[in-house]
Amino acid sequence: MRASIRRLIVKIIYQTEDNTVAVITPSPKWTGTITELADKDVPTGSAYKIIEDSELPDGREFRNAWEVDVDTLTDGVGQ
């Protein structure tokens, strides 16, 4: 029997100035690290967290209502 392999997909989240949650999804063509992408795309001074896509709510219908505890954004700060 063949085991199912799920490819790990990670995303970057941070809180925007208007207190919504921004999600950055790396392009399949991105060749750098996820940290390099965060340094490039997260606004300067904004704390971020790298998460698995499975940690995000399913569906996007209430996306503007998503909240994040800023104390959990501990993986880095936008450059």
Structural write-up:
The structure is a single chain. With 79 residues, this protein is α+β, with helices and mostly antiparallel strands. The protein contains one helix and four strands. The chain has one helix at residues 34-41, and strands at residues 10-15, 21-24, 47-52, 76-77. Strands 2-1-3-4 form a four-stranded antiparallel beta sheet, covered by helices on one side. Strand 1 (10-15) and strand 2 (21-24) form a beta hairpin.
Summarize the structure.
By secondary structure, this protein is α+β, with helices and mostly antiparallel strands.
Query: Which strand order spans the largest sheet, edge to edge or round the barrel?
Result: 2-1-3-4
Terminal CA distance reads 47 Å
Structural class by helix and strand composition: alpha+beta
Bin the helical content. 10-25%
Shape: globular
**What is the string of helix and strand elements?**
EEHEE
Rounded to an integer in angstroms, the radius of gyration calculated over CA atoms is 14 Å
Most strands sheet: 4 strands, antiparallel
Unreliably modeled segments: none
Number of strands: 4
Mean pLDDT: 86
